[in-house]
Amino acid sequence: MTETSGLDVLKAYFHTMRMHLILFFALLLWMTGPAVAARAVVCVPSTDKSGVEMCVTKNEKNVLGTALELCCAEPKTGFYRNGYCQTGSEDNGTHVACAIVTDAFLQYTRTRGNDLITPRPEYNFRGLKAGDKWCLCASRWAEARAAGVAPKLILAASHEKLLDYAELDVLKEYAVDTSIPTVPNESQSSAYAFSFTSIDGEAMPLSQYAGQVMLVVNTASQCGFTDQYTALQSLYERYKDRGFVVIGVPCNQFGGQEPGSEAIIKDFTQKQFGITFPLTSKADVSGDNVHPFFAWAAAEKKGGFLQSSPKWNFHKFLIDRHGQLVKSFGSHVEPTDSAMTVEIERLLSDQP
Length: 352
Prior knowledge:
Shape: globular
CATH superfamily of the largest domain: Glutaredoxin
Radius of gyration: 22 Å
Strand content: 5-15%
Oligomer: single chain
Number of helices: 9
Helix content: 25-40%
Order of helices and strands: HEEEHEHEHEEEHEHHHEEH
Distance between the termini: 80 Å
CATH architecture of the largest domain: 3-Layer(aba) Sandwich
């Protein structure tokens, strides 16, 4: 055997072992189901030439007790630079506070020896400006609070570890997403009680769509139903001037068919389907980390035994102008099906 052929065999062996490991973990995630699916992931570049990120799912909670949501993808924040305020034993600074920085805070932290304004290209850091979202050290946020310059927080994207530095009632005083509930209850009688994080990392309360007819759909980019994006966009364009909005909620729970980051999802939907309706960050629609909106919607039982809650991608919840859930449609129902459009027309005729 020549030296070259031996090297080729060795390369083939390691490639095969790598593929086996990837398949093993994919199978493990499939077998354990939605209970292990979460929105927080740690991603590292793959070792091949594809450049595709390989991500490890991590079940982590925010200060509200629900699944940790994206803080910001641009600039990409977090100790692990994946957009999430995750922490670990190696994170000595405990970067868990998802904050919207202000000029006053940036100047304050610079005087404390932590310059977040000056660009550092060697670290791929462009520098922050007022309005940027960033995962701050918990102790630095607490110091800024004592100094009267603490920035506002996105609680859904702030890691539960922040509770070691401030009580939840204190954090809520600085929250921009105070409408986010931890669990559904009897007082949450409409969709307006709930909030998401947008695909761009902004707070996205459903109350901002009050008076409109909403169609909330859990989506995925690699699903047999992904082509429904075309019909959803068509539906949105057809009715938006009459007070209708489609809200897409990317979800990776069913078949792992939405593995990419929010930036990848946004780019894909815009380039492949010309999507202009609002998208949220990735969320769980069932299981232990279910987003409160989907827990509430399922409990309303507006789709009978089989269609009241998502069983797969592209389940659809139709909500009237008053925030009430009217109808629940399964994945197989096309957005332009008469069963749906007739109901939308009826709801739109109820002028606010």
